[in-house]
């Protein structure tokens, strides 16, 4: 067995590989870009080597630099994780040439499965069912149109080098084929430098079912059952489960045996996944593609089999036999995985950046992550923060476990898809196992209702109680100030939620607060707030209640300088865009004088001087995006007369 390996990746998969390596007594080497200098995978490793700037093409895709790092540190093998170089045959071959073991399949196997048309030809010869279609060399438009007409609509046009949903078009009517073909070819050329396509029959109400396979250098091959990854958004997986719901045992066995045929046809070694498209009604299935690496969703397979797939990978890469034979593998229970992303589902799933200010997950939930509190989520890489994985004795039990996990998870500092995921597990069709690749688009109104991410009166009451303490770490119920001593007086607190200014009136009535917003009114006391998960800092409050996630910003327009320490250093109250700068460096300004206009959360605010003085620093300009807390203006205060 190896004594030291290098992980040619970042994020949660790098951390995941390190956990198994550490348990096996294997030392680990991390690689990192400038953006990841302080990342968790770097902190976890025994050694770490810088490989370049933040851009992936200059760091994590630099196979030559990574191999040099392995040589320099004495690593005997490289684990590629997933993404980046994991399915790059040239990198696998370069490792081989350098005398370093590539923890994955051979370059030949990667090459064979790299192009969809070539892969399907191999599968067809091996006796694996494939979708009816055309995969030939003739790429003439008129010829492809005739082939599509022959197959019958709807059809899918797919780039042979495609992946991740790129280079793919569904065509429902022959009159739209030529336009869709041209669009598909343009995207394929831009994304993969290869505009060749194949045409295949579109399966109505398709399910995405994949089989985990393993092969070793001794000719052994097994399947570790299947996963259902049908819940997708823009061809990207959102929820995965194992085993696939509602499959007859005969179909399950046929799937596994077909996958093993593929492994043996390729003389495949190490971990792989055979992806099938399945008719949700008839359970007929067809080979779609093979991923020649460990998958993001591998934890659900681990949860139902009790096996550590990274451990298996390391054994096989070291030349050992598979640890179990097929008849020794069995399914035990049901498992789900969800991917927590920094993205805004209510705004077309726009990726988010920021700092994670709070992150807590229930102890009985498996969490695969590279993010801890105070870690940044940057613009440079995929915005996945963590994977939550649960297991139950039955699918119903596992659903209940995931509902509880999402209710109790606290993840704050930036907008995430946590509430969206929770809504999936409330859906009646999902609970009943009625899943296919169109599920999310079909249930969009149910998963993203008008109330999504917006506060109700109870949320506003909780936030108001916190703000009245003057210190979010203080106890609002034990503070006795003049306002409360004066009896039933009312204060107004302004919040911003999803770009909307919300004015909340609060009246103190002894040990309770009466809170009203518009025509709605409620009373809140200590018991109500004690049961709520929340994260709060000086200006932002994130409330986690009944699976919902509500973010509120305490809005205090006016003397920003006073809110930033009273020293004339005026900082951005929230992330936003500078619309206009109203002063220049060196100008004399009065207290409360407008300095600049900022747009944040769909509203404009005027930032004013917190004191009189001279503009000493002005690091921003019109049109500039700024992060929360960024310096906007520094004023050298005038001496008091």
From TrEMBL:
Pfam families: Biotin_carb_C, Biotin_carb_N, Biotin_lipoyl, BT_MCC_alpha, CPSase_L_D2. Residues 1-445 form the Biotin carboxylation domain. The keyword Ligase applies. It comes from the Bacteria. Its cofactor is biotin. The lineage of its organism: Bacteria, Pseudomonadati, Bdellovibrionota, Bdellovibrionia, Bdellovibrionales. The keyword Cell membrane does not apply. Signal peptide: none annotated. This is Acetyl/propionyl/methylcrotonyl-CoA carboxylase subunit alpha.
């Amino acid at each position: 067995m190896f004594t030291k390996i290098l992980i040619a990746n970042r994020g949660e998969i790098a951390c995941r590989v390190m956990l198994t390596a550490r348990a096996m007594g294997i030392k680990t080497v991390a690689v990192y870009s400038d953006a990841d200098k302080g990342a968790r995978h770097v902190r976890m490793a025994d050694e770490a080597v810088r490989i370049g700037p933040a851009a992936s093409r200059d760091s994590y895709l630099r196979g030559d630099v990574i191999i040099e790092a392995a040589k320099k540190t004495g690593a005997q093998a490289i684990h590629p994780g997933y993404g980046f170089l994991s399915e790059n045959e040239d990198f696998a071959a370069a490792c081989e040439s350098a005398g370093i073991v590539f923890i994955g399949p051979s370059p030949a196997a990667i090459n064979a499965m790299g192009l969809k048309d070539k892969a399907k030809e191999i599968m067809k010869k091996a006796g694996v069912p494939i979708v009816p279609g055309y995969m030939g060399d003739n790429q003439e438009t008129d010829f492809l149109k005739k082939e599509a007409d022959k197959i019958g609509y709807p059809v899918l046009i797919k780039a042979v080098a495609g992946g991740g949903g790129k280079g793919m078009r569904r065509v429902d009517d022959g009159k739209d084929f030529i336009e869709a073909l041209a669009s598909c070819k343009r995207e394929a050329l831009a994304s993969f430098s290869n505009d060749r396509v194949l045409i295949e029959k579109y399966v109505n109400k398709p399910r995405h079912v994949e089989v985990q396979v393993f092969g070793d250098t001794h000719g052994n091959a097994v399947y570790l059952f299947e996963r259902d990854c049908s819940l997708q958004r823009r061809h990207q997986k959102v929820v995965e489960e194992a085993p696939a719901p509602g499959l007859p045992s005969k179909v399950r066995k046929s799937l596994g045996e077909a996958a093993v045929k593929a492994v043996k046809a390729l003389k495949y070694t190490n971990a792989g996944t055979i992806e099938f498209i399945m008719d949700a009604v008839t359970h007929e299935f067809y080979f779609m593609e093979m991923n020649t690496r460990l998958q993001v969703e591998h934890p659900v397979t681990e949860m139902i089999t009790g096996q550590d797939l990274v451990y298996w990978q390391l054994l096989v890469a070291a030349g050992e036999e598979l640890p179990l034979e097929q008849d020794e593998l069995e399914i035990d229970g049901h498992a789900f995985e969800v991917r927590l992303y920094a993205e805004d589902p209510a705004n077309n799933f726009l990726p988010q950046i920021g700092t994670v200010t709070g992150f807590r997950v229930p102890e009985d939930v498996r969490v695969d992550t590279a993010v801890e509190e105070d870690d940044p989520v940057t613009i440079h890489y995929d915005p996945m923060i963590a994977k939550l994985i649960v297991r139950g004795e039955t699918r119903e039990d596992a659903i209940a476990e995931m509902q509880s996990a999402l209710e109790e998870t606290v993840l704050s500092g930036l907008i995430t898809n946590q509430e969206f995921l929770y809504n999936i597990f409330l859906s009646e069709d999902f609970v009943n196992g009625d899943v296919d690749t169109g599920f999310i688009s079909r249930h969009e109104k149910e998963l993203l209702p008008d109330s999504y991410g917006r506060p109700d009166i109870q949320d506003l009451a909780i936030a108001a109680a916190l703000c009245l303490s003057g210190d979010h770490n203080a106890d609002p119920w034990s503070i006795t100030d003049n306002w409360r001593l004066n009896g039933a007086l009312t204060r107004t607190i302004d919040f911003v939620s999803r770009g909307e200014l919300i004015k909340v009136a609060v009246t103190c009535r002894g040990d309770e607060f009466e809170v009203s917003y518009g025509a709605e009114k409620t009373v809140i006391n200590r018991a109500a707030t004690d049961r709520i998960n929340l994260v709060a800092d000086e200006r932002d409050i994130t409330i986690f209640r009944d699976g919902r996630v509500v973010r509120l910003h305490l809005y205090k327009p006016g003397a920003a300088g006073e809110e930033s320490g009273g020293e004339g250093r005026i900082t951005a109250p929230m992330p936003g865009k500078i619309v206009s700068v109203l002063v220049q460096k060196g100008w004399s300004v009065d207290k409360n004088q407008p300095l600049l206009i900022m747009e944040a959360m769909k509203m404009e605010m005027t930032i004013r001087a917190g004191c009189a003085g001279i503009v000493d620093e002005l690091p921003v300009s019109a049109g500039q995006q700024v992060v929360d807390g960024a310096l906007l203006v520094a004023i050298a205060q005038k001496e008091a007369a």
